[in-house]
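ingest -> fold -> write
write: protein_1
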Amino acid sequence: MPRRRKYDDHENLERWLLTYADLITLLLAFFIVMYSMSQVDSKKFGKMSDALSGVLKGGAVIIKQGTNIGIMPGGGVLKTAVLKSIGESIENDFMGMGNEKLVSTEVSERGLVIHIMESALFQVGSADLSEKAIETLRVVAEHLKPLPNHIRDRCKRAGIPDEIIYRPNWKIAIEQVKRVMAQGLRFDYVTYDEEFGKVPEFLFDLDGMGQKAIGEVPANFRVWAKKPACKSNRAEHASHRVDKIASHSPTFYGQSGRKMVIKDTTRGKCIWQVKAAQVYLVEHKDGKAYCPVPTDRTYWLIVAHHQQTGEIKYFVSNAPAKEKLETLMEIAFSRWHVEKWFERAKQECGFG
C-alpha cells in the first residue's frame, strides 16, 4: 500500500490580526475611561470653584443692587457682572466730565482693566502730574476704594506695617548697604545678578557711596564704547546694547581674549574666555528717559564666554581702571557658591 504523502503546514499569515485587535480594544477602553473622567457636573463644579475662590481670596463680595454698588461678607469672589458695572460707572463719570476718550475699561481674565491715556496724566516731555491728571486719578480711586484689598490683607498677615510702601528690590538693597555701612562696616566689593544690574541707578547709588561693585547685566544693557561727539538722537551718536558692542565694536573684536580658570569643578576646570574695556554708561538727565547722556566717568565692561557651553555673561563694574581683571572675575563669579547652595536647599525641600 503506498505511503500517504505528508504536506507541510502553511504559515499562518493572519496572526497579526490578533495583536491588532488587542491594541484596538485597549485604545477603545482607554478613550472610554478618558471620556467618563471628562464629564463634570457643571453645577457642582461651579460651587466648588466659588468655594475655593472664597477660601483662597477671602475678603468680601461686591454686589450691585439697582444702581448702588455695595459690599457684603462672603467668599471674596468678584463676579464678572459686578466688575463690568464698576467699569461702566467709571466711564459714565468721565463721560459727564467730557473726557470719555481719556479713560476706558474692559473685563478680561485678569479682572477689571482700566486704560488711562498718557495725555490724561502727563504733558509731552514732562513727568509732573497736572491738576487734570490728579482729578482723573481721584475719580478712578473713588471707585476702587470700596474694593477688598487682598494685597493689604496679605501684608497684615505677614506682619508688614501699613506705612511700608512698595519699593523695587534695588532700592531696598541700597538702603540695606547704607545701614550696614552706618554701623562702621565696609565692603571690599558688592556683587549682584542682572536683576539688579539692569538698573544703572543701582550702580550709580553705590558709586555715590564710594562702594566698589561688580555685577551681571542683561544683553540689552546699553553703553557707549566711546563718548559721543555731541548730544543727538541720530543713530551714530546713540548708545548700543552690550551684546552688539561685544560683537561689532573694534574695542572688543580686536582683542584676542584671555583664558581664565574661574573655578575647579568635579568635571574639571571651568575655563572662560574674557574680554574687557572701559565704556560709558547711560544716565538720564533729571530722571528723564528721553534725555540719555553718557556718564562723566568710565566703567568696566567685561564679556565672558564659556567655550564649552557657549554661554556668554556680561559684567559691569565701577572698579578703578587699574584693577586687575583676574580680581574682578574672581569676585563676579563668587556668587556661584551662593546660587549652588540655594539650589541644594531647594532640592532638599523637594522643589527641584
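write: protein_2
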Amino acid sequence: MQESEKRKQEGRLSHVDESGKARMVDVGAKVPVHRSARAVGSIRIAPETVELVRENKMKKGDVLTVAQIAGIQAAKQTHTLIPLCHPLPLTHIEVHCRLTETGVQVESTIRCTGQTGVEMEALNGGQPGAAYRLRHVQGRRLLYGNGEYLSARKEKGSCRMSITLGSINISERKGTVKTPIHRAEVYEQGLKEDAHSGDWHRMISLLGQASVERFEKQMDRNIGPGEFGENLTIEGLDLNEVAVLDRFTIGGVELEITQIGKTCHGDDCAIFKEVGKCVMPQEGLFARVIRGGTIETGQDIEYHPRDFVIRVLTVSDRVSAGVYKDRSGPRALELVKAAFASKRYHLRTEYQCVPDEQEAIEAAFTAALNAGEDIVISTGGTGIGPRDITPEALAAVAEKMVPGVMDHIRLTAGARKPNALLSRSACAVGSSTIFYTLPGSVKAVEEYLQELFKTLDHMVAMLHGIGH
C-alpha cells in the first residue's frame, strides 16, 4: 500500500511527518499517469467597472485577455507560490475569464502526465493568477473568493504499464474449465466455438492475472489458464480498477465491459467443487463485442476507462445573479459523491448554474445530451410559480418521460406534507442521458436523491442495453 493511501485510511495528514513537522510527500514510487483537474471561482468587482470591461474601455486595454494570461502563468508557477507543492510537467493549461453581472467568473483546466495530481495548479491558475491582474482594473472594490475545485481525473491507460493478453480459453459447456488456445476469432457474439458466446451482454469473460495470483497465494495452489472458466486472462492491469462501460481494444477487436462479477455456479463450477471457492463471482468481468476480429496470446491491449459524468444544474435567477448562495446544488454534489463512493464507476461531476429562462435551461440540457453525459440533476423551477419552467424545458429536449419514479416520491412525501404534491419534478431520458429535475430546497434534494439512487443502476443498464 502506498504511504499516502495508508495515511489517508488512518486519517493522518500526508504533508506532516511523524513528529508533526511539515514535509514534502515522496511520490517517487508512483507510476506517472495522465491527470487533469478543473476549478472555477468568481471575482467580484464594482458594477461600473463591469460595464467598462464589457465595453473594452479600460485604460489598460483588454483586461480579460491579460487576466487569462496571468492565470496561465500562475498555474505554471504553483510549486514556487504554494509550499510543499511538487513541480509538475504541465502539458495543458486552459483559463477562461467570463464577465458576469457582478464580476468575472474564472475557470481553469490543467493536464499533465505525472506522479501526483494537478488540483492546486487548477485552483491557483483559476483564481490568484487572474485576480492579480484584475486588481489593477479601475475601481478599488474587488472581492476575490468563492473558489471551488470541481473535478479531477486520473486517466488509466497504456501509459501505466504494459497490458497484454495472457491467455485465450474456450469450452463447449458453461461452468467448466476452459481449454487454452493460441488464437481465436471474435465475432459479433463472442469467441467462436465457446459456450458463453451468444446474443446477450456476457459474451466474453475476463479475469486479471493479479486476481489469479492472489487466489493461488490464498489457496496454496497453482491455477492454470481457463480453470476459472474465463475466456481471457489479462496481464499488467488489476481489473479491480475497471468499471462497467470501460473498453478494451486488442488489435482490431473492441470489447465493452457490461458486468462485474456474477452469481457463483456452486457445485456446477469445476473449480468450486475442487477447492470450495471461486474468484470469478467477485473479480471476474464480462464484456460484449463492439468490433470483432482475430486475437492472439501475448498481444498488446489498450485500456480505455470511461468517465461516468453527472452534472448538477442549479436553476435560479438569484443564484445566477450572485445575490443568493446556492445550497441545493452543492448538497446534490455531496450526495452524488457519497452514493458513488462504493460504486465501480469513474465518476466525474460537473456543476452549472443558469437563470429561470427556458432557453438557457434547454441549452444546458441539450449540451449535456450532446456531450453524452450520463446524468443531469437539476434543482429548482419545478413548482407552479410564473418563473417555474424547468419541466417544460426538459420536455422540449427529452425523448422519453419516466413519470413513475417521481410520482412515487411525490405520493410518499405528500402523505406527510400535502404541499409536496404541488411539485412538478420530472424524470426523463434522451439517448443515454438520464435527467432528473428536482425542487430547489435542500430537504427536497435529499429526499428525492435517496429514492432515485435506488433505481439508478438499473436505468443505466437499460439505457445501454445491458442485461435487460
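write: annotation protein_2
The first helix runs from residue 3 to 10.
The first strand starts at residue 33 and ends at 45.
pipeline exit 0
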